[in-house]
């Protein structure tokens, strides 16, 4: 006798199951690629014990993937974003990364990355209405 099936939708699917689906997709992909060395990577700047800027992502297959880079609203325009980027890049270089990949939906942030040596390798116009998804790559060493 087979177990009864039940479809759950939206909010009826527990968060733990959503996390499990994501984790199993990632695990399956890494098994296909073989040799994954994924490791979290992060930098954060604190002033008087309060977080004012930070970046995190992962390194894997000799590539830095930046997931998030954030600067507190009142500290933007002071170069802290570039400082975060240089800090996390330095950590990635010490781990043996040869390039870095980042995405943004903001045109002005894409321009900042380009100013810092990144090349835009793709755009998806209206990825979100009114926003373009920019994918940028910075190469330190050719992969041959």
TrEMBL record:
It comes from the Bacteria. CDD domains: NAT_SF (cd04301). Residues 1-142 form the N-acetyltransferase domain. InterPro entries: Acyl_CoA_acyltransferase (IPR016181), GNAT_dom (IPR000182). It holds the Pfam family Acetyltransf_1. This is GNAT family N-acetyltransferase. The lineage of its organism: Bacteria, Pseudomonadati, Pseudomonadota, Betaproteobacteria, Burkholderiales.
